Amino acid sequence: MKKILTISFLLILAFAMHGQQKSGLLVEMPVPPSSIEGLTQRSNFIVDKFWDTFNPKSSFSNLDGLKYTLSQFFSVAPYASADTVHASIDKLLAKVAKAKPDNLLPLARLAEELVASDSADYISEELYFPFVQAVATNKKVKGAEKSRYAMQFRQLDNSMTGRTAADFSFTRPDGTTGNFSDIKTQHILLFFYDPDCTDCRIAKARMAADIAVPTFINAGLLTVMAIYPGEPDDVWRKDAAGLPESWVVGAWPEADTYFTMRNQPEIYYIDNTHRIRVKGVAVDNILNTFNDILNNALNNAK
Question: What is the pTM of this model?
Answer without folding.
Answer: 0.83
